[in-house]
Amino acid sequence: MAAPSKDVSHPDDLDDAARARCLEVLAASIVHEINQPLSTVIANAEACVRMLGAQSLDLEGARDAAFRTVQEGKRAAAVLQRMWSLFAKTEARNEPVDLNETASAALLLSSQELQLRRVIVRRELEADLPRISGDASQLEQVILNLVTNAADAMNEIHDRPRELVVRTERGEGHVRLSVQDAGQGFEPRAADQLFVAFYTTKADGMGVGLFVSRWIIENHGGAIWAALNAGPGATFSFLIPCRALT
Questions:
Q1: Is 175 helix (H, G, I), strand (E, B) or coil?
Q2: Cα-Cα-Cα-Cα dihedral sign, residues 18, 19, 24, 28
Q3: Is pLDDT at 7 greater than 50 in this prediction?
Q4: How do strand 223-228 and strand 234-241 relate by DSSP bridges?
Q5: Banded pLDDT at 31 (limits 50, 70, 90)
Q6: Which of 81, 84, 179, 212 could lock 146 by a disulfide, CB 3.0 to 4.6 Å apart?
Q7: 125-140: per-residue pLDDT in tens?
Q8: CA–CA separation, 130 vs 146, rounded Å?
Q9: Domain housing 159
Q10: Residue 219's domain is classified under what CATH number?
Q11: What is the pLDDT of residues 181-217, one digit of tens each?
Q12: How far is CA 127 from CA 167, 170, 188, in A?
């Protein structure tokens, strides 16, 4: 396992200029993440209004549209809450976390986008996984980042299935989660740079997702890293120690 380099910058170590840049990138990231659920909220609300105003009243369809509106509104609120908990100098929650449940919740949130991208999701979640102590909302954000990055890495893949594998397993004193893709991979020399603030391999990337993910995992006493697969693609993994639950 290739552990992340220790010389990667941490939010607490950023100077004023870098801190300002970080906030700028974070704001752009929030806009990007809530744009889709808000667009869906508008579309569903408009559909609901049309169904209620039609000559042939479609109460069932209107009810479904209203329900989807509520769900997407909650999704947008959850994004903002996660970002607030990370950067507002509030204490992270310390609660029992089932990593399998957290992974399933993250996949549910991203299911529509993954379907649109024709990504095949395979879950390999170890049964009876020990619970860890941490903040489920923050860990869900990490998994969402990894899943989104995996989908991005397969955008240009047309000669093989766009398969994404989410795997959990127990180790000696820790639990581990991995997200494996069948994408284009990355340059081996870039492995240690992937988690650095503002470093990105994407043409339209901002270089903040993996940086924030590393921050969250290290605040949980864990480690996060990336490795190339034996075949196509890459696998991003993190581990969290199993601590006594209080």
A1: strand
A2: positive
A3: no
A4: antiparallel
A5: low
A6: 179
A7: 999 899 999 988 889 8
A8: 22
A9: 95-241
A10: 3.30.565.10
A11: 998 877 667 667 666 655 455 544 444 577 778 878 8
A12: 11, 10, 33
d(CA 109, CA 85): 19
Q: Both 15 and 132 in a single domain?
A: no
Beta-strand relationship, 174-180 and 163-170: antiparallel
Segment holding 111, helix H or strand E: helix 99-116
Residue 83 CB neighbours (<10 A): 18
Last residue of a domain, one of 36, 57, 87: 87
Residues 202, 145: Cα–Cα separation, whole Å: 14
Q: What is the DSSP string of 204-242?
A: T--S-HHHHHHHHHHHTT-EEEEEE-SSSSEEEEEEEE-
Question: Domain for residue 246, yes or no?
Answer: no
Looking at the fold, whether 76 and 168 belong to one and the same domain comes out as: no
Q: Is 177 helix (H, G, I), strand (E, B) or coil?
A: strand
In terms of domains, do 145 and 195 share one?
yes
Domain termination site, one of 34, 65, 87? 87
- By CB atoms closer than 10 A (0-12, 13-18, 19+), residue 108 is exposed
For residue 34, being part of any structural domain is answered with yes
Residue 1 lies in a domain: no
Write the burial class of residue 134 (CB in 10 Å: 0-12 exposed, 13-18 middle, 19+ buried). buried
- For residues 134 and 92, what is the distance between their CA atoms, to the nearest angstrom? 8
User: Do residues 46 and 147 share a domain?
Assistant: no
